[in-house]
Amino acid sequence: MQLQHLRYFTALARERHFASAAATCGVSQPTLSAGLVALEQELGKRLVDRDRRFIGLTEQGVAILPWAEQVLGAVRGLSQAAEALSVAPQGEFRLAAIPAALALVGRLGDRLLRDNPGLTLSVHSDTAREIQRGLAANAFDAGVTYLDHEPAANVLSVALHEEQYLFVARKGAGFEVDAAVSWKRAAGSRLCLLHQGMQFRRILDRHFAEHGLSVIPAAIADSYVSLLSLVRSGGFTTIVPASYAQLMAGLEWCRFLPFAEPAPARRVGLVVVGRDPLGPMAGAALLAAQAVARDNAG
């Protein structure tokens, strides 16, 4: 069985598009398709439903996906272990972050690359649950996620930030005189929010419930870029982490308002798998995160 064929399969499962998967693997689409056919023939099972386009994985494809990820992760871990005695880590560093933490990756990534010039950084956005699964399969070197809410198991962590929440409305939408907004008023506005598969949304739903409120947003999305675009249209409001307000400082079209009844802060931080011995990539990530945490404290 060729590892490259497993790479084609996992890339297709992730991208859900033949051309995108081929581009990710750096091969032509016919090469990727031929590799998938060879893998199916070797296993004697059809793994992918397809016509002229990707439809989905078969039951057999879904069943082998975690094993394929673990095999590739183990091979990658073996390569890293072989380089563990080198002067500094080399190659691609894969960092996964929940959408709520994407505004924090700049300082962490900058510190990581300044301290380890042999690395290149690849940032992925994913859910907290997928990050935990990816870390266990060695698909990611580190993650940035919540440390207190639904915490990942068997990890080492460094707290980077305490998350607060801000209400966002377009200027002219009726919030000009407000210094803060209540959860009740926010719930009564035309909200657009992340979908419930996102941990940030589940936390928000809990905060609303603590105030006796239930929210059905007018629109949902899987990124803050989409939410802010809807707000800019003038007809929507949203709720974002305060770190996004810092990232968007100076924009004239929107207002960021704190909540009159602030929710408890949630810690967000870097996590790596707690292996012994610690791999070179994980060690480099922890050192970079600790440096950023010291800078934040100072």
TrEMBL record:
Taken from the UniProt entry, a GO cellular component term is: cytosol
CDD domains named in the record: PBP2_LTTR_substrate
Q: Which PROSITE patterns match?
A: HTH_LYSR
Q: Where is the signal peptide?
A: none
Q: Name one GO molecular function term.
A: DNA-binding transcription factor activity
Where does the HTH lysR-type domain lie? 1-58
Q: Which Pfam families match?
A: HTH_1, LysR_substrate
Q: Which InterPro entries match?
A: HTH-type_LysR_regulators (IPR050950), LysR_HTH_N (IPR000847), LysR_subst-bd (IPR005119), WH-like_DNA-bd_sf (IPR036388), WH_DNA-bd_sf (IPR036390)
Key words of the record: DNA-binding, Transcription, Transcription regulation
The answer to whether keyword Cell inner membrane applies is no
In the record, the note on similarity to other proteins reads: Belongs to the LysR transcriptional regulatory family.
Q: What is this protein called?
A: LysR family transcriptional regulator
Organism, scientific name: Novosphingobium colocasiae
